[in-house]
Design goal:
This protein has about 120 residues and is an alpha+beta fold. It has a single domain (about 1-115), classed as Nuclear Transport Factor 2, Chain: A (Roll). It has three helices and four strands. The protein has helices spanning about 1-15, 25-40, 40-45, and strands spanning about 70-75, 80-90, 95-105, 110-115. The chain has a four-stranded antiparallel sheet. The longest helix has 16 residues, at about 1-15. The protein is globular, with a radius of gyration of 14 Å.
Length: about 120
């Protein structure tokens, strides 16, 4: 589920930013649909419009190439937490790490929390 979320999210963004395949309105609508599909209703209230970065990536920059290095591991301590990481190759190249909580909502696994302290 987590891999599918990142694939859908990054592909949609790539189609808009890099390939110009859709208008800003269609992009926003598709992004909302992806987030609603993969995130709980509780989680949707957490992030407002005021963020200046993508919480699922801990970055302002979004590139589909991130999928090549994306790793997902279940936390060794908390059963509902997953550690997501990817390699950011640009200026000050480094591994970016994100913790997600996944729960079951209406019989479907969904992201319920992104433990973000801002951009690392």
């Amino acid at each position: 589920m987590i891999k599918n979320f990142y694939t859908d999210y990054l592909t949609n963004t790539d189609n808009f930013l890099e390939k110009g395949k859709m208008s800003p309105e269609v992009f926003a609508s598709k992004e909302d649909s992806i987030i609603k599909k993969y995130c709980t209703t509780n989680h949707l209230r957490e992030f407002g419009e005021d963020l200046d970065y993508v919480p699922y990536l801990k970055s302002q920059m979004v590139e589909i190439e991130l999928l090549k290095t994306l790793t997902i591991q279940k936390d060794s301590v908390k059963n509902d937490v997953y550690n997501v990481s990817y390699y950011w190759p640009h200026g000050g190249a480094k591994w970016i790490k994100i913790k997600l909580r996944v729960i079951v909502e209406n019989g479907i696994y969904k992201i319920d929390n992104v433990f973000n302290d801002g951009i690392e």
